[in-house]
């Protein structure tokens, strides 16, 4: 249970950080970013020429979101020799998760049943609201028609079959 609460503290902290006017993982102009940070929408692949050899340097680059998670949220230390300190925002979010659990089970099984009613129905309510909002947007009919109507000519394209095979391998693990 304690491990699960640590994992739950990440989305709580992300939710809190996402309420800012500018998302902190949008760009590379933050104190936790490194010189290897590359913003999305930039060059797709970076290469460098050395001694008439082509070198790819993009494997070492990181997105702002990746650096935000590892350098700001987790604050990963250099190794086991330097354990670092307490990450106070994560500590507060973990404490908040434990308080929510305590409030849910303070009165025993009866209160847990009420919580389950809410947590089981609320996601479906949100999905229904998003569905109604989605089908009332301009161009929704064209999008639904595109989704439902098959394009038989695409079945002769070899790239479609290659992409399908890649997805199968990803889903198989």
TrEMBL record:
<keyword id="KW-0769">Symport</keyword>
<dbReference type="InterPro" id="IPR000175">
    <property type="entry name" value="Na/ntran_symport"/>
</dbReference>
<feature type="signal peptide">
    <location>
        <begin position="1"/>
        <end position="21"/>
    </location>
</feature>
<feature type="transmembrane region" description="Helical">
    <location>
        <begin position="86"/>
        <end position="109"/>
    </location>
</feature>
<keyword id="KW-0732">Signal</keyword>
<dbReference type="Pfam" id="PF00209">
    <property type="entry name" value="SNF"/>
</dbReference>
<keyword id="KW-0915">Sodium</keyword>
<dbReference type="GO" id="GO:0005283">
    <property type="term" value="F:amino acid:sodium symporter activity"/>
</dbReference>
<comment type="similarity">
    <text>Belongs to the sodium:neurotransmitter symporter (SNF) (TC 2.A.22) family.</text>
</comment>
<protein>
    <submittedName>
        <fullName>Sodium-dependent proline transporter</fullName>
    </submittedName>
</protein>
<dbReference type="GO" id="GO:0089718">
    <property type="term" value="P:amino acid import across plasma membrane"/>
</dbReference>
<dbReference type="InterPro" id="IPR037272">
    <property type="entry name" value="SNS_sf"/>
</dbReference>
<keyword id="KW-0812">Transmembrane</keyword>
<feature type="disulfide bond">
    <location>
        <begin position="28"/>
        <end position="37"/>
    </location>
</feature>
<keyword id="KW-0479">Metal-binding</keyword>
<keyword id="KW-0813">Transport</keyword>
<feature type="transmembrane region" description="Helical">
    <location>
        <begin position="115"/>
        <end position="135"/>
    </location>
</feature>
<keyword id="KW-1133">Transmembrane helix</keyword>
<dbReference type="GO" id="GO:0046872">
    <property type="term" value="F:metal ion binding"/>
</dbReference>
<keyword id="KW-0472">Membrane</keyword>
<feature type="binding site">
    <location>
        <position position="171"/>
    </location>
    <ligand>
        <name>Na(+)</name>
    </ligand>
</feature>
<dbReference type="GO" id="GO:0005886">
    <property type="term" value="C:plasma membrane"/>
</dbReference>
<keyword id="KW-1015">Disulfide bond</keyword>
């Amino acid at each position: 249970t304690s491990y699960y609460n640590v994992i739950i503290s990440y989305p709580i902290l992300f939710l809190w950080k996402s309420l800012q006017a500018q998302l902190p993982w949008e760009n590379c102009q933050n104190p936790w970013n490194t010189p290897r940070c590359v913003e999305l929408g930039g060059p797709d692949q970076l290469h460098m020429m050395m001694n008439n050899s082509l070198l790819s340097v993009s494997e070492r680059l990181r997105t702002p979101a990746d650096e935000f998670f590892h350098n700001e949220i987790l604050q990963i230390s250099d190794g086991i020799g330097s354990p670092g300190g307490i990450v106070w925002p994560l500590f507060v979010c973990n404490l908040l998760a434990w308080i929510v659990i305590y409030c849910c089970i303070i009165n025993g099984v009866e209160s847990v049943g009420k919580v389950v009613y809410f947590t089981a129905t609320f996601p479906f309510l949100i999905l229904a609201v998003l569905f109604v909002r989605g089908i009332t947007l301009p161009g929704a009919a064209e999008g639904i028609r595109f989704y439902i109507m098959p394009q038989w000519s695409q079945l002769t394209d070899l790239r479609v079959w290659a992409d399908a095979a890649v997805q199968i391998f990803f889903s198989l693990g």
